[in-house]
Amino acid sequence: MNRVVKEGRGRHSEYLYPAMPYTAIVKISDQDVRDVKACLYRAGRALFRRSC
Fold it and tell me: What are the sequence ranges of the domains in the chain?
């Protein structure tokens, strides 16, 4: 997730441009990236449970 947000590179080092990296969030701290990832994961699980 850090590589996606900060460098705009995917799992296999492919560029994700133009979607990432957003210049507004490229300087986000590593802890903030982990927190956002955890939040998205929890939200996704909650949505999945509701749709089943």
Answer: 2-51
